[in-house]
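Design job #97: recover the sequence.
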């Protein structure tokens, strides 16, 4: 699943009053983490190592988003 779609789903979970406070806070944190990663890619990194690092962080964030959303 696309990371942007997962970020939108995390935002919806964070703003859903039926989601418990701990889960909502975690969803908000993951959405914020995604936004910071996107900001680091704009403009694209000047070197390949930075690009690789951002991609690895995006992959880790995506995994945590999927795990969180799977329990909802």
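Job complete. Output follows.
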């Amino acid at each position: 699943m696309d990371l942007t779609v997962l970020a939108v789903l995390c935002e919806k979970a964070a703003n859903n009053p039926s989601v418990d406070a701990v889960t909502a806070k975690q969803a908000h944190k993951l959405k914020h983490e995604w936004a910071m990663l996107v900001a680091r890619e704009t403009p694209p990194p000047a070197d390949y190592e930075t690009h690789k690092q951002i991609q690895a962080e995006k992959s880790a964030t995506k995994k945590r988003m999927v795990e969180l959303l799977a329990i909802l």
